[in-house]
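tokens incoming
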């Protein structure tokens, strides 16, 4: 691994000083470690720097550029009011994705991807409505039935929360889907592609980058790598959202002022 890190450092050193901080962060997060060479997807060849100890080493100079490009796209999307759906159902990604999505007020899926979450949104929304109904009745003490029946309803509510809690306010399709592991959440990628929704995804060396709009070549198993990339995407989403809110508030203030003048 030490030799692999040295190789990645050489690759990173090819770029200018201006980009060194992000490259250093990626390197320290272990983003350069791909999968074993015998498990690779040949379509990732352009993003692989070499092989050390039987493990593919990702060219972090390309990862750097891909990440910045994805960040700009996400910021531009949210600046126009678009929502980013964060997806990360792999165990080590769940808390990272949930935290990032909640902090940016974006929808997320971390428990498991239920088929149709995008392609059959109307049916999914009926399950969300059921969840909200049970939550309201539980909060108001209005769950009806015997003690056992009430307990069954509480269990149903918790089950629905685990699956649909993160998309409870997603009434329309998201503008972008961000995925932390293309293979684990391949159905999410597939559904987004069917609906022509752009996908931003971390692509390890066993992934097919051609399936997503904005691939980010990186280690999709390392917690620090997942956290670094997810947090940067979230920051871009937050920045864009804040600009959108400010623009919307300014437009409303102007409209209110105009209406006030007309009334006079």
């Amino acid at each position: 691994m030490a030799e692999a890190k040295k190789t990645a450092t050489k690759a990173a050193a090819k770029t200018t000083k201006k980009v060194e901080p992000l490259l250093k962060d990626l390197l320290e997060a272990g983003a350069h470690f791909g999968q074993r060479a015998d498990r690779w997807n040949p379509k990732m060849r352009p993003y692989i720097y070499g092989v050390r100890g039987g493990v593919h080493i990702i060219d972090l100079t390309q990862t750097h550029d891909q990440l910045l490009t994805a960040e700009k796209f996400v910021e531009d999307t949210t600046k126009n009011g678009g929502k980013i759906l964060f997806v990360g159902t792999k165990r080590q990604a769940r808390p990272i994705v949930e935290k990032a999505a909640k902090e940016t007020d974006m929808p997320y899926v971390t428990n498991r991807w239920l088929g149709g979450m995008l392609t059959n949104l109307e049916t999914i929304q009926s399950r969300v409505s059921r969840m909200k109904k049970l939550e309201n009745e539980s909060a108001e003490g209005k769950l009806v039935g015997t003690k056992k029946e009430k307990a069954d309803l509480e269990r149903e509510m918790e089950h629905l929360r685990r699956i649909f809690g993160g998309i409870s306010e997603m009434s329309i399709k998201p503008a972008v889907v961000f995925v932390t592991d293309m293979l684990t959440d391949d159905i999410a990628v597939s559904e987004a592609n069917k609906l022509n929704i752009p996908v931003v995804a971390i692509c390890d060396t066993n992934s097919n980058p051609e399936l997503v709009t904005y691939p980010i070549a990186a280690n999709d198993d390392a917690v620090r790598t997942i956290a670094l990339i997810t947090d940067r995407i979230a920051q871009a989403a937050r920045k864009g959202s804040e600009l959108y809110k400010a623009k919307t508030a300014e437009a409303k203030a102007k409209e209110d002022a105009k209406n006030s003048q007309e009334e006079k």
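note: The longest strand covers residues 48-52.
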